[in-house]
Amino acid sequence: MHSFRYVDGSLKCEGVDLETLAAEVGTPAYVYSAETIRGNYRRLDEALAPLGDRMICYAMKANGNLSVLNLLAKEGAGFDIVSGGELFKVLKAGGRADRCTFAGVGKTAAEIDYALRQGIYSFNVESEEELEMINEVAGRAGLVAPIAIRVNPDVDAPTHKYISTGKSKNKFGIGLDRAAAVYERAASLPNLKIRGLQTHIGSQILKAPPFAEAVRKLTPLVMELKSKYGLEFFSVGGGVGIVYRGALSSGDAAWWKGSAEGSDDINSEKEGERLAPETYAAEVIEPLKALGLRILFEPGRFIVGNAGVLLSTVLYRKSTPTKNFVIVDAGMNDLIRPALYEGYHEIEPLKQCSSTVLEKVDVVGPVCESGDFFAQDREVPVLAPGDRIALMSSGAYGFVMASTYNARPLLPEVLVEGEKATVVRTRQTWNDLIVGERLPT
Ligand SMILES: *Cc1c(COP(=O)(O)O)cnc(C)c1O
């Protein structure tokens, strides 16, 4: 379900040879496949078609490049946003505010005012104080704010602790026990219009039952609210996971496989597991259909995760008595997933070597942190200085989390469409690094 594969020993993205592209734009660089993004969107949308009235609001925090947003807007996607800046980008990319939902626990008054004036479809409210704030801002603007309340179903979804959100100990949403009272309060506030109910149980979830369990747990409440306040939509959030281990073979031929890494407990990134959109749809359609409402989905990672790779070049090799290091030109500032939540990325050479010998190495970046690694004690093909590699499945939570730590300029992003590769964000220069900085006079 992605467009990266080896052809005659060279890794291609659609019709573009990645080694050639890397030589042109330099490394490190992010590359995205338009075909994969579109394919993921369409496949999910088709799987959910039996629902009838539905809206896929792409969670753009996963990848907010304007070209990606534009491509999805053209497919008819709405957007799930988490800041005023994200709404600004959606509008710049040709998206519509009335197809956007605004999530997040810390919306400021200025962001609320902006989204309201742009005609946002719904504020997904995360606390009672936020509800009061939205009412106040709407009153001042002389507008009525459409809202949904994010309800935490207290469902345990197997994923990494930093990306689990549906348990009562998480900071997200309002507990099932409090939800009815908060809706009652919302109904009493003059500048609010109750539009829906939202939930989101977490990210990188590879089993369908927890999603259905969340819907079933919320159904009695939704039916009650529907008759009381005339709800228009129910949003099941995002969280559908993707394959990280064995990522290439999930697309096409894999000529070698990385071994399972260490003894981690992130069962969600184990080799081979995947959640097909059809499996997900088969599980949730029945309970969702029973609600008789418009259904919203907020996939982020599923749409873009396997549609992107991070290209990098091997700089040096280095051995200590206990380790062999391969030092590459990409760092944790460019792709922080391994450091932040032990994220796993397959490492594929852009040119297959003739030998199939593997060696156990740590693949690390140049940043001055021990957390700056892409793989530890992993068996990879023998890599020499100058060899170029792809860190697979880097399309989600990749570039968007990049920083300029160590004064490393932000990377270019390239969008591939068939034989055509377009630099859709240029590489920052050293001058860009000091924009806005001043010496005191
Ligand atoms: C992050 C987030 C999503 C998207 O999660 P994915 O795992 O990328 O699908 C959807 N909805 C909300 C409210 C989120 O915070």
Structure explained in plain terms:
It contains twelve helices and 21 strands. The chain has 441 residues and is α/β, with parallel strands linked by helices. It has two domains: 148 residues, Lyase, Ornithine Decarboxylase, Chain A, domain 1; 271 residues, Alanine racemase (TIM Barrel, Alpha-Beta Barrel), CATH 3.20.20. Strands 4, 14, 15, 16, 17, 18, 19, 20 and 21 form a nine-stranded mixed β-sheet that branches. Strands 5-6-7-8-9-11-12-13 form an eight-stranded parallel β-barrel, surrounded by five helices. Helix 5 crosses helix 6 and helix 7 runs parallel beside helix 8. The termini are far apart. About 5% of the residues have low confidence. The protein binds pyridoxal-5'-phosphate.
Mean pLDDT: 92
Please name the CATH architecture of the largest domain: Alpha-Beta Barrel
Residues in β-strands, percent: 15-25%
Characterize the biggest β-sheet.
Answer: 9 strands, mixed
Count of extended strands: 21
CATH level-four homologous superfamily name of the largest domain: Alanine racemase
Low-confidence stretches: 251-271
Q: Specify the helix fraction band.
A: 25-40%
What compounds sit in this structure? pyridoxal-5'-phosphate
Using the CA coordinates, give the radius of gyration: 23 Å
Going by helix content, strand content and strand pairing, the class is alpha/beta
CATH class of the largest domain: Alpha Beta
Total number of helical segments?
12
| Count of the domains | 2
- Which oligomeric form is depicted? single chain
* Global geometry: globular
